[in-house]
Amino acid sequence: MVKDAGRSARASVWLEEKARRGGRGGGQPSGLDRERITTVSVRLLDAEGLAKFSMRRLAAELNVTAMSLYWYVDTKDDLLELALDAAFGELRLPDPDAAGQDWREQLRALATEYRALLVRHPWLSPLAGRYLNIGPNSLAFSRVVQRVVRRAGLPAHGVTGAISAVFQFVYGYGTIEAHFIARIADTGLSADEYYQQAMAMVAEAPETAEAVEESKDLMAARGGNTVAEMLDRDFTFALDLLIAGIEAMVTRG
């Protein structure tokens, strides 16, 4: 099928004049502003999820008409981009130029912050892959990450690969962790109760009992008395492996 040559792909709300101004110009209807709309959008996404989010639902929450929202954004995609970048604004970023700071510790801090963000906002991970993600907060995060990894001493051609290794791992880990937490929430159980019940059922089922038996020693060696401790231990160890890999590549030259 031949695509309509007159249609261009959507770029980003951040490349539009409206995003920089915060509105179409003139008066602001219903006492709204872009910051308030974005803040309420994030709150709704946290409470109800991405699937239930709509301009109509947001307008009801703000007690305005849906048409009032289009003074600030052309589409729901524009609004989701604004919400995405607002979430990135929660990240605490280290100063990569601070004297005496170890790049390894700064990289660990950035990875830990990003993991927590993905878990705190489960709707963030699908949006991060959907849009260009070039808002000011996202760019600030990306620039700090790049400057920290540059200090490791890798050759220039290896910097982006190292960033990908670390932060694609964090993206995957945080996304799966967020799914796990959501699944637990639907049961009404605590994370530890859910884990114990699930493992007991899996161990008793003929189709899965053998796999559980084979991994008993690994699970015991893993340590951790709670699900949270086990998740933290695995995340920390995997991150240490990646940082050790960066160090090894620096030594290899």
Describe this structure in words.
This protein is mainly alpha-helical and 253 residues long. The protein is 68% helix and 0% strand. Helix 2 (34-48) packs across helix 5, helix 5 (76-88) packs across helix 8 (136-150) and helix 8 packs across helix 9. The relative contact order is 0.09. Mean pLDDT is 90; it is low at 1-6.
Give a quick summary of the entry.
It contains 13 helices and no strands.
Instruction: Determine the fraction of residues in helical runs and give it as a percent range.
Output: 55-70%
Beta-sheet strand percentage? under 5%
The number of distinct β-strands equals: 0
What's the SSE pattern?
HHHHHHHHHHHHH
Rg (CA only): 22 Å
Largest sheet: none
What separation lies between the terminal Cα atoms?
49 Å
- Spans where pLDDT lies below 50 across 5 or more residues: 1-6
Structural class: mainly alpha
Brief descriptors of the model:
mainly alpha, 13 helices, 68% helix, disordered N terminus
List the helices and strands and how they pair.
Layout lengths: L16 H5 L12 H15 L6 H8 L3 H4 L6 H13 L14 H18 L3 H7 L5 H15 L5 H32 L3 H14 L1 H9 L1 H7 L4 H26 L1
Helix pairs in contact: 2-5, 5-8, 6-9, 8-9, 9-13, 10-11
